Amino acid sequence: MSSRAFKPVFARKIMAVAGLLLVALLAACSTPSHQVLRFGLASAPVSLDPRFATDAASERINRLLYRQLVDFDAAFHPVPALASWQQLAPDHYRFILGQTGRRFHDGSRLTADDVKATYDFILDPDHASPHRATLDMVRDIRAVDADTVDFYLNRADPLFPGRLVIGILPAAQIAAGRAFNNHPLGSGPFEMVAWPSPGQLQLRRIKDGQLFEFLVVRDPTVRILKLQRGELDMVQNDLPPELIRYAAARPDLKMVKGKGSNFTYLGFNMQDPVVGRLAVRQAIAYALDRDAIIRYVLGGAARPASALLPPDHWAGDPGLAQYPYDPVHARALLEAAGFAKGELSIVYKTSNDPFRIRLATIIQQQLDAVGINVDLRSYDWGTFYGDIKAGRFQMYSLSWVGIKMPDIFHYAFYSTAVPPRGANRGHFASPVADRLIDAAQATADPAQEADYYRQLQNYLWQQLPYVPLWYEDNIVIERRAVEGYTLARDGNYDGLENVTLKAF
After folding, report:
1. Residue 435 belongs to a domain with what CATH number?
2. Distance between CA 81 and CA 67 in Å, rounded?
3. Most buried residue among 132, 235, 242, 252 by CB atoms closer than 10 A?
4. Taking the chain (504 residues) in consecutive chunks of 10 residues, what is each chunk's mean pLDDT?
5. Per the domain annotation, does 140 fall within a domain?
6. Whole-model pTM above 0.90?
7. Are 119 and 152 in contact (CB under 8 A)?
8. Beta bridge partners of 87
């Protein structure tokens, strides 16, 4: 057979095979490849008991399993969830349960007794709930009737409704000693099906029976590859920019990005003889080129930060300036403080997440450029976080996730809020900060309260117990078959209530 004859015959065979493959592909795509929507996680939830959960993964999953009395609007004002409320006196709040979300997954009805039992458990010091410290103003809780519960306080607290964000558990199961941490029972839009391993959690959406599987895939590259292969349907956050750009360019994937409120910062041990000096912290603030990091390393998916609260928070300060990138001024500050080039050394701790190490390495390079030698040390998350909580650090980088209440300032900066009484891990002690926090917590005037917090943020900006870095955006990468997911400012997974997995 001549080559001329061979080419048409070969071409016809190829077209025939391609046609068969196309038919098979279309047939396969006429229905979803599986009925379970698979969500990729960077880390596993630690506990599905909202009385004890503090990590971000646990809290986001728990919002799906349990309902809480109060939630927050876009400006972080508290709004009714399970209950509306009335302030009957400065130290007396009444909460009235509505009709939505009043059925536990075992069929029993959620009542005021369940609310009381949940919060009584948290307030009992024998149970060592990590949330007890934020509720230490509660003096007594009384169930008035099935739909009404009263909270009596030992001091006035205008922020009190916003503190009641713990998922409500059934009183009978609390009394029976149920292990909610791995056998959750709430009244949320999802119920647990199985948790066969720490890295595999299966939930069912109540309204339509749609199954969800949360799978831990720690390596971000592997998460994206599994997304491409259809082994995952969605991943959210914890992705380096190059993978985001790669995934966004894929025709079989799509990206959704939204403004976030999670705050990333550098923290310091204020008792350390080096970083405890204001001039050193100021030099660090001026030495960092945040805009370049956000543009080239974070892929533009962040906003520079000046304070812990974002500027559009009701107690935020949109007029607060940012430390400009000024390495000349940074070197001048160090020289005036008595540090010649190369004489200043700092140990910088971070987690061993590859992307966090990359960010820390860039910060190390920028500080080196102004004469600060940085000894960068990375650890697994448990060791790293344990060191931070124990105060074993000079400098570290970390993020506050899902902050909504301005009482975070008392928790993180009040002089007496050192661990285990709070999260003032750097031992920042300032009568000025304490006075502003006390004044903000004492006033009943919302406008005056916001003004005190803005004064406080301006003072912290000057004193730099934290060097603010940025607020990271929330990013979800999903298969084209996924529709209807909406991103929340704090990165929660509430959008799964309405997401669908369509045929294509």
Report:
1. 3.10.105.10
2. 8
3. 235
4. 35 36 35 74 93 90 98 92 96 96 97 98 94 92 98 91 96 97 97 95 96 95 95 93 90 92 95 97 98 91 94 93 96 93 90 89 97 95 90 95 88 92 93 96 88 97 97 94 93 95 74
5. no
6. no
7. no
8. 93
